[in-house]
Amino acid sequence: MVKKQLSVGVSVMVLLLCCVNYSLCKEIQTYKLTRGNLSVTFTNYGAVMTSLLLPDRHGKQDDVVLGFDTVDGYKNDTTYFGAIVGRVANRIGDAEFELNGQTYKTDPNEGHNTLHGGTKGFSDVIWSVEKYVPTSHITFKYDSFDGEEGFPGDVTVKVTYMLIGENKLAVKMEAKPLNKPTPINLALHTYWNLHSHNSGDILSHKIQLLAGKITPVDEKLIPTGEISSIDGTPYDFLEPREIGSRIKELPGGYDINYVIDGIAGKHLRKTAVVSEGVTGRKMELWTNQPGVQFYTSNMMTRVVGKGKAVYEKYGGLCLETQGFPDSVNHKNFPSQIVNPGDSYLHVMLFRFTAH
Questions:
Q1: CB atoms within 10 A of CB 325
Q2: Are 91 and 114 in contact (CB under 8 A)?
Q3: For residue 319, which of 50, 83, 182, 351 sits 20 to 30 Å off, Cα-Cα?
Q4: Annotated binding site for beta-D-galactose
Q5: Which residues are annotated as a binding site?
Q6: pTM score, two decimals?
Q7: Which is it for the CA torsion 116, 255, 347, 341, positive or negative?
């Protein structure tokens, strides 16, 4: 393996390495999208969003995304900072599922369960760049092969990050199975801290989640199959309130799939609003997916990130729009199975403001 390590802050970083499934070496680079006061950087390793710079109410720019200074950080990462995760995001109970009479065993990379696609899911592969316009958008592409981490069939996957206007970021995740039915559930695993990535915890952030139900989980964070109301529980964020206001009533913190109000499909539904009082920054999120995983980085402990910042528990929040976790094993959950000839489409839209 030949490698050349440069800072993520450099506009282009080259890291040459030979991959198991490629006869030729591929380049790892970083890319930057800029429009107005919004600036976002990415790497084609894991299609990761490595930084996002936003102005506060006084015009001061801060990076509001947790991450690392080098690609090696992402290669050794266990937090999935900023990555596209899949082929199936979240968890598959007992690392297996049945499809059309056949049992498929996936990689059990979290105890007996599969998390975010397995040991080498989409967050740990090198994507190619199909299109890149620095003032507009970038499209990453990955060809997932039959049997990868135990999943059936070849699948072509694309992710496009696009700047809209001067304060919006759209994320479009697409996938097409080529020869076998297969489950597909992609997610963007960005950790947000609207004060700044190195400012401490997010417990004083206010959040509103437009979702009146959750899918409860067991002690291994595998859904029980129930869909429960949040009424009267610490999970109720239908009205905005501080994340830390009732977090101590939960074991560890928030790590649960919310059932977004309304009907999932082609139309985007408003999903969440996050605000931070010191800077005045606000982030709004829309999606076409049925669920959103709200995670408060409960398992993060002394992760050394950008600029030698040390990220601790509750250092960031994730809003991972998605299909329901472990839906392959729960017939009452919306199906994630996509057949050849059909397409998977997952859209997220972020709007950033500061007042």
A1: 28
A2: yes
A3: 182
A4: 90-91, 189-191, 255
A5: 90-91, 189-191, 255
A6: 0.92
A7: positive
pLDDT digits (tens, 9 = 90+) for 230-279: 999 999 999 999 999 999 999 999 999 999 999 887 799 999 999 999 99
The structure tokens 């994320």 sit at 171
DSSP string, 75-128: HT-SS-TTEEE-SB-SEEGGGEEEETTEEEE----BTTBEETTSTT-GGGSBPE
Q: 344: closest CA among 178, 181, 218, 176?
A: 176
Q: What are phi and psi of 65, to 5 degrees?
A: -120, 130
Burial class (CB in 10 A: 0-12, 13-18, 19+), 26: middle
Tokens 């090198």 sit at which residue? 126
β-bridge partners, 223 = 217
Q: What are phi and psi of 75, to 5 degrees?
A: -65, -30
The residue type at 241: R
From 195, 320, 330, 346, the catalytic residue: 320
Helix (H, G, I), strand (E, B) or coil at 238: coil
* Rounded Cα gap, residues 192 and 194, in angstroms: 6
Tokens linked to 82: 């900023």
The structure tokens 């801290």 sit at 193
Question: Hey, which residues does 176 pair with through a beta bridge?
Answer: 156
- pLDDT tens-digit readout, 323-341: 999 999 999 999 999 999 9
Measuring CA to CA, which residue among 66, 144, 79 is closest to residue 307? 66
Rg over alpha carbons for the chain, rounded to the nearest Å, is 19
Q: Which helix (H) or strand (E) holds 27?
A: strand 26-28
Distance CA 321, CA 89 (A): 10
Supply the DSSP string of 151-218, one letter for each residue: --S-EEEEEEEEEETTTEEEEEEEEEESSS-EE-B-EEE--B-SS-TTS---TT-EEEE--SEEE-B-
Q: Which of 189, 195, 205, 346 is catalytic?
A: 189
Query: Could you give the CA distance from residue 143 to residue 276 in angstroms, rounded to a whole number?
Result: 39
Q: Tell which residue, 5, 15, 10, has the closest CA to residue 31.
A: 10
pLDDT in tens, 67-82: 999 999 999 899 999 9
* Helices and strands in the chain: count of H runs, count of E runs: 1, 30
Give the tokens for residue 217.
């989980």
